[in-house]
Each structure stands twice: as C-alpha cells, then as structure tokens.
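Re: the request from the purification team.
They wanted to know what the chain is likely to look like in 3D before they choose a buffer screen. I agreed to run a prediction and write the result into the notebook, where they can find it.
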Amino acid sequence: MKKIVLLICLIAFNFAAKSQSLGGFPIIDYLVEAVHPNGCDINAVTGYPDDTTWVNLNVGDTMTGTFGSTWLNAVGSELLLETSFHADNYNVRLKLSSGFYSATHAVNVADWTHITDTAWIFVGNICDITVFFPDDRYVLPLDFDTDFGLDVIDIVTGIEIVFLTTGGNPDLAGAYIIGGTPIACDTIDLGNDTTVCNGQGLVLDATYPEATYLWQDASSGPSFHVTESGQYWVSVTTDCGVVTDTVNVTIADVYPSIIDAGGNVLECTDPFYTYQWYYNDVLIPGATDQSYTVSAIGTYYVEVSDTNECEGISNAIVVDVLTRLSELSPHYMTVYPNPNLGSFKLSTTVLPNHVWVYNSVGQMVLNRITIDKNDLIFNLSVAGVYFIHAQFDDGFAVRKLIVR
C-alpha cells in the first residue's frame, strides 16, 4: 500500500478518543516508558490505546518498554500487541524481574487480526517530520506460558521487540496487559511529618526485599539517619516498579541559658513551656518560674521543656556571694512603654542613684548616674531582651525590658 505523505508543522491530529479496551480486550496495564532505537520520541506507544499515534521503525530495530505494574501468569492471554499499516514479523520476548528474559516468540504476519480502518498520525524515524495517512489496525493476543514459556514464579516487568519485516517499514502502536495476576506490593512509608528532640536523632527506614534506594542526598542505603531539620525523601525500586515517599522532620533545639539578672535573681533568657530549678543538683520544690531568686550560695541551673515535651538543661551559675539587697515593691519602679522600639522611660517615686542596663547574655550596655528625671529617659538601638537595674538608697529594683 502506498503512503500518502503530507508535511505538517506543529499540528496534532486527534481523530479518536483514548480507550481502555481494544478489539474486545480490556486493557489493564500499558507501557509507561519505552526506548526507541533511533532516539526518537516514543510517547506514541506508551499509555492506553490511541488511534491517532504510533511509531515507525527500521528492519532489525529493537525497542524495549516497561509496564506500569509487574505481572504473573494467569489463565488465558495476558499480552496484547497493537500495530498499524504493516502486519509485521516480530521477535518478541518479555523482560523479567530477575533481570533475564523469557523465551522468544516469533510473530508472523498471518498471526495478526485486523480490527478497523483508522486514520493515523505517525512520527517518522528521522524524528523531525509528521506525516498523515489512513490505514489499518491490527492486534495480537499472546499467552505468558504458551507463547513465552514462563513458569508460575516468573514476574513480567516489560517487553523487548525486534522488528523483522522484509516488506516496508515495520510499525508499532502499543503493547498492553490484558490479563495476568498483579504482584501485591507494599508501599514505602517514612511516617508522618514529625518533631524530634535535639540529641535524639531519627532513623528513616525504607527497607524492602530485593530493592535499590535513592535518598535526597544521593545515598543508596535502606535507611537514613536524620540529624537536621528538613524535608527527606526516598525513591525505592522494587519488582513492582519505583515507589517514593517524603517526610518533613523538625529537630527541636532546646538549649536554655540563664544569667545573673541582679538582686540575687537568676533568669532563663528564653521562654519555654515548663521550668524546674535546681540547687547543688537537688530539685527546688516550687521553683518552676522563668526566674528564681537565690537565697544561699551554691550552684544553680534550670531544666526546661517545650510544647513537644523536649527537654534541655541550662548552663550552671555558681553564686559565691549574696548581695542580700532586697527588691523594692513592684510599684516603686515601672518601665514604659514595654515592649518598645528602643525608646523607653523609667517611672519611679524616688530618683535612683544609679541605673545599669544588661542584655540577655549578661553584658552591660548602659551605665548611668542619675541626677534628675531627664536621666531616666533611655534609647537602645538593638532589638532584644534587657534587664534594668536601678540602685536606690534602700535597695535595688530589677525590671525586664523587651525592645522590638
């Protein structure tokens, strides 16, 4: 039959909708990828039957493809081949999960069944032109054991076709699974998104029988040890194909720090969910606030937890001298506005003799002797948590300040 050739520029013809059956055979799986021997676009033979696309090959060419699932032998035909224009001679064998191939089945021209007249679009093997012509459609059902000699334990993953026709160019429109038993495959599950306490770490396990692995960092082991917050994924290749999973992991950093806030007050610089203070490694009953006023010389630290129940222990502070300066009543001195943007004022009923400002790590950032009310207006340029220490004739007052 003579081909009628029409050059087409960037036009796709779609004369019939895709179908999930062909020639009376239900299609339950199809090629999800294929390799064209000449490097051309092979999408025409992947997916469900489509009576507008197919490929042309040369005599002696070999094309390989992989099905979407893996399959065992069952009763009846399991494989359906589809071709157009030529009812060609093929040598066909099946790819197995073992890495080997089945026996080769020789397909003869007379084996094909003509099912319809169809208008086809065809991408030639020179890869750069599109031609249109109407022609016929053929199918051929094949059996895993009868035609390919498969045993009950052989697992089919794909197909290899060698084109042997001697009249014109051989064609292929698709290879499909129409029967067989699918392999029951487990999914890969790295678990739900999670938060892990610092120092604990997390092992993500993707172990699967006879599988290969690819993690987000290109490592290839069956498990991955997480030590940093981030998104983690694995791609696992099994007899069933390639499966992937992704999980987000947050490492909760609970590292409390305490400072001497003055006036015998120890302060935890960061907010946490719970606090428990210790004196000389002994729990202090009722000492469960962010700050603690010491009453004896010795070593103090605080144990904290966050909302994820992750725990941490602060640095220790050794108190070797007690000032025994009593804190004035809370209404004696106030700071306003608090929080603020860097400008604030002290309001006192008695002018303090001296004012110091410390940052959250205990560094003095301001030292001022007060003479009048104007000395109680302050400016800080760096956002953070500060502690205001004011000395009066009869004691000290300490106030916490937040600069945003």
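For the purification team: The longest helix spans residues 144-148.
Please add any questions underneath this entry.
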